[in-house]
Design goal:
By secondary structure, this protein is mainly α. It is built from twelve helices and no strands. The longest helix is centred in the last third of the chain and has 25 residues. It is globular.
């Protein structure tokens, strides 16, 4: 006896289903205990969370690569993650996708009074300040013991570092200008040199953390995302290293048999090719 398959499209209408509604129906069918997908049915918020994070990174990767076809595909995958979480929540009577969309829309209206109300913002800095003021009104920050209390602990280290620094800056704990942070970086670099000379591994690790922290702060003060910058650096390194591998093969050589100076020459050639 064949098992009844869950229906995706409603038979009560002859009109094409809106793509968003179709996606919601597909996820509902996949999670249907009567004929759905065994893998999808057994998933939980906890098991899906890593996929959600992974898809967000793949969106960022497509943006860095400037691949719009890939971006469309990855945004679809990220949207699917939202739908997946919303469907699981709906099954538990917590909320559904429409609640998520409504909440997001209302939040954007609330945090943009310069667009939807009579507040005035003449620069991106003004907008950021308004955003934080409105967020304070929506949350219970005023009742917190520290301005750092609601910085998520499960962010990646670079993301959390930047969040912590941004919160501290809101109360004036901030360098005057980015160049001051470079001076601090030079100071930390000297401390790293001293730690290396001392040979204490714990001190070296501690100073390494300080170097990362200062560079992350520098990135934030320039209005850049430290993690996004590192993703770009990783891509650049991979592209250039693959380039020197191919260049070595064209010479009938292996990198294993080349000196560091020879590899450096090929590396510089790859950099020059990118500039030309």
């Amino acid at each position: 006896m064949s098992q009844k398959k869950p229906q995706i499209l409603s038979s009560s209408t002859s009109l094409p289903e809106a793509p968003a509604n179709k996606l919601l129906d597909v996820m509902k069918a996949l999670r249907n205990p009567d004929g759905g997908c065994a893998w999808d049915i057994e998933q939980t918020f906890e098991t899906i969370a890593p996929y959600t994070i992974e898809e967000a990174y793949e969106v960022a990767d497509a943006i860095i690569e400037k691949d719009m076809d890939a971006l469309k595909d990855e945004l679809g995958d990220l949207l699917l993650q939202v739908v997946f979480h919303a469907q699981m929540a709906s099954e538990q009577g917590l909320f559904d996708f429409q609640d998520v969309a409504e909440h997001a829309a209302n939040k954007m209206i609330s945090r943009h009074p310069h667009v939807f109300d009579d507040a005035i913002a003449q620069s991106a800095g003004d907008v950021d300040e308004i955003w934080e003021i409105q967020k304070d009104k929506e949350t219970k920050r005023q009742q917190q013991d520290s301005v750092l209390d609601d910085v998520p602990t499960n962010l990646s280290p670079l993301k959390r570092s930047q969040k912590l620094q941004k919160r501290a800056a809101r109360v004036g704990f901030e360098w005057t200008k980015p160049i001051d942070v470079l001076d601090k970086f030079e100071e930390e670099t000297q401390e790293m040199r001293e730690a290396l000379q001392g040979g204490n591994k714990a001190e070296v690790l501690d100073e390494m953390g300080d170097l990362y922290f200062v560079l992350t702060n520098f990135s934030r003060m320039l209005g850049q995302d430290a993690e996004y910058a590192l993703i770009g650096a990783n891509k650049k390194f991979e592209r250039r290293f693959r380039g020197i591998e191919n260049a070595a093969k064209e010479l009938g050589r292996s990198l294993n048999d080349m000196t560091l100076d020879e590899m450096e020459t090929l590396w510089q050639e790859q950099k020059n090719l990118e500039k030309s």
